[in-house]
TrEMBL record:
The modification 4-aspartylphosphate is found at residue 69. One of its GO terms (biological process) is phosphorelay signal transduction system. The lineage of its organism: Bacteria, Bacillati, Cyanobacteriota, Cyanophyceae, Oscillatoriophycideae. Keywords: Phosphoprotein. This is Response regulator receiver protein. Pfam families: Response_reg (PF00072). InterPro entries: CheY-like_superfamily, Sig_transdc_resp-reg_receiver, TCS_response_regulator. Residues 11-136 form the Response regulatory domain.
Length: 151
């Protein structure tokens, strides 16, 4: 990136059905130093509609990062992850599983499906804030993501 180049806000797609967790993640990202827009899908079907730009999401902007819960209604996060990583137009988007699960089978299966990172959510408020801030710092500031044209 050259000096003075316009930097587009990063798009984060949060796929989460828990209203409480959505609110906490929104709060944690409020103090972000990275310009971003948080989009929310409350179930796996809505997430895939958003990602495939179908239905009400025809004008949706591809996210730079997906935060994905595993235990979702309609289509669970494991299915969503498998579909994302099997789709040539979506597979380059980094996916971070952010789940209350600490089940080894869930962790192993997520990595077999090529998740970029698996993080177990904390029920401790300050710990969850720390986790979200670290995700934001690493994935939106430190890591070099694929260009928007190729995502």
């Amino acid at each position: 990136m050259s000096y003075g180049e316009d930097v587009k806000p990063k798009i984060i797609l949060l796929v989460e059905d828990s209203k409480a967790d959505i609110r906490l993640i929104q709060e944690a990202l409020k103090t972000s130093s990275t310009e971003h827009t948080l989009m929310i899908a409350r179930d796996g079907v809505e997430a895939m509609d958003y990602l495939r730009q179908e239905g009400e999401y025809k004008e949706a902007i591809r996210p730079n990062l997906i935060l994905l819960d595993l235990n979702l209604p309609k289509k669970d996060g494991r299915e969503v992850l498998a579909e994302i990583k099997a789709d040539p137009t979506l597979k380059r988007i980094p996916v971070v599983v952010l789940s209350t699960s600490r089940n080894e089978e869930d962790i192993d299966h997520s990595y077999e499906l090529h998740v970029n990172c698996f993080i177990s959510k904390s029920r401790n408020l300050s710990e969850l804030f720390r986790i979200v801030k670290e995700i934001e710092t690493f994935w939106l500031t430190t890591a070099t993501l694929p260009s928007d044209e190729k995502i």
